[in-house]
Fold this protein.
Amino acid sequence: MTQTIYQVDSFTSQPFAGNPAGVCILGSSANEAWMQAVAREMNLSETAFLVPQMNGFNLRWFTPAAEVRLCGHATLASAHILWKKGILQKDERAQFHTLSGLLTADLCGDWIEMDFPARPAEPVQPPMGLIEALGTEARFVGRNADDYLVELENEDVIRNLKPDITALGKLKVRGTIVTARSENPQFDFVSRFFAPAVGVNEDPVTGSAHCCLTPYWALKLGKKEMTAFQASARGGILHVKMAGERVRLSGQAVTVMTCELE
Protein backbone atom coordinates (compact mmCIF):
# COMPACT_ATOMS: atom_id res chain seq x y z
CA MET A 1 0.00 0.00 0.00
CA THR A 2 1.07 3.58 -0.59
CA GLN A 3 0.79 6.45 1.90
CA THR A 4 0.04 9.99 0.77
CA ILE A 5 2.14 12.79 2.24
CA TYR A 6 1.39 16.46 1.58
CA GLN A 7 3.93 19.26 1.77
CA VAL A 8 2.44 22.58 2.84
CA ASP A 9 4.06 25.99 3.18
CA SER A 10 2.69 27.55 6.37
CA PHE A 11 2.42 31.18 7.49
CA THR A 12 2.46 32.38 3.90
CA SER A 13 0.06 32.80 0.98
CA GLN A 14 2.83 32.18 -1.57
CA PRO A 15 4.56 28.90 -2.39
CA PHE A 16 8.25 28.57 -1.49
CA ALA A 17 7.96 30.96 1.44
CA GLY A 18 6.90 30.47 5.05
CA ASN A 19 7.71 27.17 6.73
CA PRO A 20 7.27 23.85 4.90
CA ALA A 21 5.71 20.95 6.81
CA GLY A 22 4.84 17.40 5.91
CA VAL A 23 1.31 16.17 6.64
CA CYS A 24 0.59 12.44 6.81
CA ILE A 25 -2.98 11.30 7.57
CA LEU A 26 -2.96 7.69 8.74
CA GLY A 27 -5.76 5.16 8.97
CA SER A 28 -4.49 3.91 12.33
CA SER A 29 -1.63 4.49 14.75
CA ALA A 30 1.84 3.92 13.31
CA ASN A 31 5.08 2.70 14.80
CA GLU A 32 7.06 5.54 16.36
CA ALA A 33 10.31 4.45 14.70
CA TRP A 34 8.55 4.48 11.31
CA MET A 35 7.22 8.02 11.87
CA GLN A 36 10.69 9.19 12.84
CA ALA A 37 12.15 7.56 9.73
CA VAL A 38 9.55 9.24 7.51
CA ALA A 39 10.29 12.63 9.12
CA ARG A 40 14.00 12.06 8.51
CA GLU A 41 13.27 11.19 4.88
CA MET A 42 11.09 14.29 4.42
CA ASN A 43 13.90 16.36 5.97
CA LEU A 44 11.57 19.23 6.86
CA SER A 45 11.64 21.02 10.21
CA GLU A 46 8.51 19.02 11.16
CA THR A 47 6.29 16.33 9.70
CA ALA A 48 2.83 15.91 11.24
CA PHE A 49 1.13 12.53 11.65
CA LEU A 50 -2.65 12.49 12.15
CA VAL A 51 -4.90 9.61 13.18
CA PRO A 52 -8.70 10.13 13.21
CA GLN A 53 -10.30 9.54 16.61
CA MET A 54 -13.49 10.47 18.37
CA ASN A 55 -13.83 14.25 18.54
CA GLY A 56 -10.95 15.04 16.23
CA PHE A 57 -7.49 13.73 15.45
CA ASN A 58 -4.50 12.49 17.37
CA LEU A 59 -1.59 14.65 16.20
CA ARG A 60 2.16 14.09 16.65
CA TRP A 61 5.08 16.08 15.25
CA PHE A 62 8.57 14.85 14.37
CA THR A 63 11.65 16.77 13.29
CA PRO A 64 14.28 14.79 11.36
CA ALA A 65 15.89 14.06 14.74
CA ALA A 66 13.20 13.93 17.45
CA GLU A 67 9.54 14.14 18.42
CA VAL A 68 8.50 17.57 19.75
CA ARG A 69 5.75 18.53 22.18
CA LEU A 70 4.35 21.51 20.27
CA CYS A 71 4.54 22.70 16.67
CA GLY A 72 2.53 25.55 15.20
CA HIS A 73 3.31 25.49 11.49
CA ALA A 74 2.70 21.74 11.08
CA THR A 75 -0.61 22.11 12.98
CA LEU A 76 -1.56 24.92 10.60
CA ALA A 77 -0.55 22.71 7.65
CA SER A 78 -2.62 19.81 9.03
CA ALA A 79 -5.75 21.93 9.43
CA HIS A 80 -5.23 23.35 5.92
CA ILE A 81 -5.14 19.85 4.41
CA LEU A 82 -8.21 18.67 6.36
CA TRP A 83 -10.28 21.49 4.83
CA LYS A 84 -8.58 21.41 1.43
CA LYS A 85 -9.28 17.69 0.95
CA GLY A 86 -12.85 17.88 2.29
CA ILE A 87 -12.10 15.72 5.33
CA LEU A 88 -13.59 18.58 7.34
CA GLN A 89 -16.21 21.01 6.09
CA LYS A 90 -15.10 24.63 6.01
CA ASP A 91 -17.37 25.54 8.91
CA GLU A 92 -16.10 22.64 11.04
CA ARG A 93 -13.49 23.21 13.76
CA ALA A 94 -10.33 21.12 13.58
CA GLN A 95 -9.57 19.50 16.93
CA PHE A 96 -6.16 17.99 17.65
CA HIS A 97 -5.27 15.85 20.68
CA THR A 98 -1.54 16.33 21.29
CA LEU A 99 1.26 16.13 23.86
CA SER A 100 0.36 19.77 24.65
CA GLY A 101 -3.32 19.04 25.19
CA LEU A 102 -6.24 19.95 22.96
CA LEU A 103 -5.43 22.38 20.15
CA THR A 104 -8.08 23.76 17.83
CA ALA A 105 -8.14 25.57 14.49
CA ASP A 106 -10.86 27.51 12.70
CA LEU A 107 -11.00 28.64 9.09
CA CYS A 108 -11.55 32.42 8.95
CA GLY A 109 -11.67 33.43 5.29
CA ASP A 110 -8.17 32.99 3.88
CA TRP A 111 -6.64 32.68 7.36
CA ILE A 112 -6.53 29.84 9.85
CA GLU A 113 -6.75 30.75 13.54
CA MET A 114 -5.28 28.29 16.03
CA ASP A 115 -5.81 28.18 19.79
CA PHE A 116 -2.57 27.32 21.64
CA PRO A 117 -1.33 27.47 25.24
CA ALA A 118 0.61 30.59 26.23
CA ARG A 119 4.16 29.74 27.30
CA PRO A 120 5.61 32.90 28.83
CA ALA A 121 9.31 33.11 29.63
CA GLU A 122 10.54 33.95 33.12
CA PRO A 123 13.62 36.18 33.45
CA VAL A 124 16.81 34.19 34.03
CA GLN A 125 20.55 34.75 34.14
CA PRO A 126 22.02 33.85 30.75
CA PRO A 127 23.52 30.36 30.87
CA MET A 128 27.19 29.95 30.09
CA GLY A 129 27.70 30.11 26.34
CA LEU A 130 24.38 31.67 25.27
CA ILE A 131 25.47 35.29 24.79
CA GLU A 132 28.81 34.15 23.35
CA ALA A 133 26.98 31.94 20.84
CA LEU A 134 24.79 34.84 19.74
CA GLY A 135 27.76 37.19 19.50
CA THR A 136 25.83 40.28 20.63
CA GLU A 137 24.45 42.00 23.73
CA ALA A 138 21.05 41.06 25.14
CA ARG A 139 18.38 43.38 26.51
CA PHE A 140 16.47 40.51 28.13
CA VAL A 141 17.00 36.79 28.65
CA GLY A 142 14.15 34.53 29.73
CA ARG A 143 13.25 30.88 29.60
CA ASN A 144 10.13 28.72 29.50
CA ALA A 145 9.92 24.93 29.57
CA ASP A 146 11.24 24.61 26.03
CA ASP A 147 13.30 27.60 24.91
CA TYR A 148 15.39 30.62 25.78
CA LEU A 149 13.94 33.98 24.77
CA VAL A 150 16.46 36.76 24.07
CA GLU A 151 15.53 40.33 23.18
CA LEU A 152 18.25 42.01 21.11
CA GLU A 153 18.89 45.69 20.42
CA ASN A 154 16.98 46.17 17.16
CA GLU A 155 15.66 44.56 13.99
CA ASP A 156 18.93 44.97 12.08
CA VAL A 157 20.74 42.92 14.70
CA ILE A 158 18.10 40.19 14.38
CA ARG A 159 18.31 40.09 10.60
CA ASN A 160 22.12 40.11 10.47
CA LEU A 161 22.67 37.66 13.33
CA LYS A 162 25.03 34.78 12.55
CA PRO A 163 25.04 32.69 15.72
CA ASP A 164 27.36 29.82 16.54
CA ILE A 165 24.91 26.99 15.81
CA THR A 166 27.15 24.32 17.34
CA ALA A 167 27.32 26.26 20.60
CA LEU A 168 23.55 26.86 20.67
CA GLY A 169 23.03 23.12 20.20
CA LYS A 170 24.87 22.46 23.47
CA LEU A 171 22.33 24.42 25.53
CA LYS A 172 19.88 22.21 27.44
CA VAL A 173 16.77 23.51 25.71
CA ARG A 174 14.82 22.81 22.54
CA GLY A 175 15.88 26.12 21.01
CA THR A 176 16.66 29.83 21.26
CA ILE A 177 14.26 32.61 20.21
CA VAL A 178 15.75 36.01 19.39
CA THR A 179 13.45 39.01 19.01
CA ALA A 180 13.27 42.79 18.71
CA ARG A 181 10.69 45.49 18.11
CA SER A 182 9.95 45.89 14.41
CA GLU A 183 11.13 48.98 12.58
CA ASN A 184 8.44 48.38 9.94
CA PRO A 185 5.07 49.84 11.04
CA GLN A 186 3.35 46.87 9.40
CA PHE A 187 4.66 44.63 12.20
CA ASP A 188 4.93 44.91 15.98
CA PHE A 189 7.93 42.64 16.47
CA VAL A 190 10.31 40.38 14.58
CA SER A 191 12.05 37.17 15.56
CA ARG A 192 14.21 34.24 14.52
CA PHE A 193 14.41 30.75 16.01
CA PHE A 194 17.33 28.34 16.25
CA ALA A 195 16.85 24.71 17.38
CA PRO A 196 19.95 22.66 16.50
CA ALA A 197 19.38 20.37 19.49
CA VAL A 198 16.37 18.85 17.68
CA GLY A 199 17.93 18.89 14.23
CA VAL A 200 16.70 22.31 13.01
CA ASN A 201 19.51 24.86 12.75
CA GLU A 202 17.07 27.68 11.93
CA ASP A 203 13.34 27.22 11.67
CA PRO A 204 11.79 29.44 8.95
CA VAL A 205 8.58 30.34 10.85
CA THR A 206 7.78 28.95 14.30
CA GLY A 207 4.24 28.96 15.65
CA SER A 208 5.21 27.47 19.02
CA ALA A 209 7.83 30.20 19.59
CA HIS A 210 5.01 32.74 19.32
CA CYS A 211 3.36 31.11 22.34
CA CYS A 212 6.28 32.68 24.19
CA LEU A 213 6.71 35.82 22.07
CA THR A 214 3.03 36.84 22.26
CA PRO A 215 2.79 37.25 26.07
CA TYR A 216 6.22 38.90 26.15
CA TRP A 217 5.41 41.60 23.60
CA ALA A 218 1.79 41.98 24.73
CA LEU A 219 3.06 43.02 28.16
CA LYS A 220 5.89 45.16 26.77
CA LEU A 221 3.78 46.97 24.15
CA GLY A 222 0.51 47.03 26.08
CA LYS A 223 -1.35 45.36 23.19
CA LYS A 224 -3.44 42.19 23.04
CA GLU A 225 -3.43 41.87 19.25
CA MET A 226 -0.26 42.16 17.19
CA THR A 227 1.27 41.27 13.83
CA ALA A 228 4.60 39.46 13.83
CA PHE A 229 7.24 38.73 11.20
CA GLN A 230 9.76 35.91 11.48
CA ALA A 231 12.83 37.18 9.67
CA SER A 232 14.30 33.97 8.30
CA ALA A 233 15.42 33.66 4.69
CA ARG A 234 11.94 32.39 3.72
CA GLY A 235 10.06 34.71 6.09
CA GLY A 236 6.54 34.44 7.46
CA ILE A 237 3.68 36.54 8.86
CA LEU A 238 1.51 35.77 11.88
CA HIS A 239 -1.38 37.59 13.53
CA VAL A 240 -1.22 36.91 17.27
CA LYS A 241 -3.63 37.62 20.11
CA MET A 242 -3.59 37.06 23.85
CA ALA A 243 -6.68 35.26 25.19
CA GLY A 244 -6.19 34.74 28.91
CA GLU A 245 -3.74 31.88 29.35
CA ARG A 246 -4.04 31.00 25.67
CA VAL A 247 -2.77 32.60 22.49
CA ARG A 248 -4.48 32.78 19.12
CA LEU A 249 -2.08 32.33 16.22
CA SER A 250 -3.35 33.07 12.72
CA GLY A 251 -1.64 32.33 9.44
CA GLN A 252 -2.17 31.29 5.85
CA ALA A 253 -1.02 28.13 4.09
CA VAL A 254 -0.57 26.75 0.58
CA THR A 255 -0.10 23.15 -0.60
CA VAL A 256 3.01 22.81 -2.76
CA MET A 257 3.43 19.06 -3.20
CA THR A 258 1.63 15.73 -2.91
CA CYS A 259 3.65 12.52 -2.92
CA GLU A 260 3.03 8.80 -2.50
CA LEU A 261 5.29 6.89 -0.12
CA GLU A 262 5.85 3.42 -1.60
User: Anything to note?
Assistant: The chain has a mean pLDDT of 97.
